[in-house]
Specification:
By secondary structure, this protein is an alpha/beta fold. The chain folds into three domains: 110 residues, Serine Threonine Protein Phosphatase 5, Tetratricopeptide repeat, CATH 1.25.40; 143 residues, DNA Cyclobutane Dipyrimidine Photolyase, subunit A, domain 3, CATH 1.10.579.10; 121 residues, HUPs (Rossmann fold, 3-Layer(aba) Sandwich), CATH 3.40.50. It has 17 helices and five strands. It has a five-stranded parallel β-sheet with strand order 3-2-1-4-5, with helices on both faces. Helix 4 crosses helix 5. The longest helix is centred in the first third of the chain and has 20 residues. The protein is globular. The model has no long low-confidence stretch (mean pLDDT 95).
Length: 413
């Protein structure tokens, strides 16, 4: 099955944003939980692939909601935008959770090599052959469109873990390989939340009545199909959550140094940074999505990232040399050789959050440092303000939203 294509451009993101502005208020609050099926997701913005890559900025989306509906009527919509920033900050404060996920996934996939029964059950789930009509329909939608409604993602994850009794990390990996908006923080932590690992001891249970109601009767789960025994998986991590770490403080780019600009899909709105202050001796782009998983990543995901990077270069009149990561996050040797041969003394990029791109560059930093080349990063004020409050549950960020909004309005006036 082939994934449908979307234009991975800032212009297309702005078009989607403008089209959804009228629905950011009371309509969103009333209707946001309804999953009406492929082609019918009109009560949600579907902006996430663009916000994920900052082809559209969180601040732009929130400003549009405030301008049109005000902070009270658009409260639910604004909170959903902040959830993404919350998850990003939470994982930046606890980067070992991402490392544990990657190591645990490798172990889970290795187990499939010897456990033939488990391998068959995973294959049935990933190909939409479980016999659960709703679950199989969501598999088909995910694989063919690269999208699932957020409510369906929760139901899907709960059924995967507690009804089908499959390893949660393989399920998270399945999402990450196909979601156009796939994000290391949001995807990993959402699955952990469903499993009872994020908010310790509180798992999410998919209920038949809830699926029937919020699919507007498209699906009618039979009594007994879904597990009634939803026990949090926190016993699998008896050590609990890791201690909060200090934020990684990146080196600030120095315009006086011979510099190579590296474009990544962590932030595709680089025109917000002072790129004109630099005399670039080289420009490169890195398509990192093949490194999302040891398994094959959807061609649609890779092409969307490639398109976003091409649009970034086009808007900024840049002609980068393009490099692709490999599956399994192997060394990006050609990119590193290009950086060394360019004569650059610093690689400049927008801040690399926890995820495959960060992993790839981190793994190669010793090679660059041996050639007296360092990595410098721009970090947005938006992230610097919000992330420190993501140390526990979302409530700490939610409490601060009025302050964040006041700052946003002050900056735009």
């Amino acid at each position: 099955m082939e994934m449908t294509t979307q234009k991975a451009t800032r212009e297309e993101g702005q078009t989607l944003l403008n089209a959804f502005i009228p629905s950011m208020g009371s309509h969103y609050e009333r209707s946001r939980n309804f999953d009406l099926g492929p082609g019918q997701h009109r009560s949600v913005s579907q902006l996430s692939p663009y916000v994920r890559r900052r082809l559209v900025l969180e601040s732009e989306v929130i400003q549009a909601a405030l301008n049109t509906h005000g902070p009270v009527v658009s409260e639910k919509f604004i909170q959903e935008v902040f959830w993404r920033s919350y998850f990003k900050g939470w994982l930046e404060l606890r980067p070992t959770v991402w490392n544990q996920y990657r190591c645990g996934l490798a172990e889970d996939l290795s187990a499939l090599e010897t456990n033939l029964a488990l391998r068959a059950r995973v294959a049935a789930a990933e190909s939409g052959r479980t016999g659960l009509e709703y679950f199989d329909a969501w598999v088909n939608e995910l694989v063919t469109t690269g999208y699932l409604h957020n409510h369906a993602r929760m139901w899907f994850a709960s059924i995967w873990i507690f009804t089908l009794k499959l390893p949660w990390r393989i399920g998270a990996d399945f999402f990450y390989r196909y979601l156009l908006d796939g994000d290391a923080a949001s995807n990993t932590l959402s699955w952990r939340w469903v499993a009872g690992l994020h908010t310790r001891g509180k798992a999410y249970s998919a209920e038949g009545w809830n699926i029937q109601k919020f699919t507007a009767g498209r699906f009618h789960p039979d009594s007994g199909e879904l597990s009634k025994s939803v026990e949090p998986l926190d016993y699998t991590e008896p050590w609990g959550l890791p201690e909060i770490q200090r934020f990684r403080n990146p080196l600030k780019p120095d315009p006086k140094l011979p510099s190579l600009l590296l474009l990544t899909d962590d932030d595709c709105c680089i025109e917000d940074y002072d790129i004109a202050a630099f005399s670039w001796i080289a420009v490169a782009s890195l398509v990192s999505s093949p490194a999302r998983s040891p398994r094959e990543v959807s061609a649609g995901v890779i092409e969307f990232e490639r398109g976003a990077l091409a649009d970034t270069a086009r808007r900024n009149n840049l002609s980068p040399v393009c490099f692709d990561a490999t599956s399994n996050g192997g060394p990006v040797t050609e990119l590193i050789d290009f950086i060394i041969q360019s004569g650059a003394k610093q690689v400049v990029a927008a801040y690399l959050t926890q995820g495959p791109t960060h992993d790839l560059l981190k793994a190669n930093l010793p090679v660059l440092q041996a050639h007296n080349i360092h990595l410098s990063e721009w970090r947005r004020d938006w992230d610097t303000r919000i992330w420190p409050h993501a140390s526990a549950g979302f409530f700490k960020v939610k409490q601060k939203i009025p302050d964040f909004l006041r700052h946003l309005l002050a900056c735009n006036n």
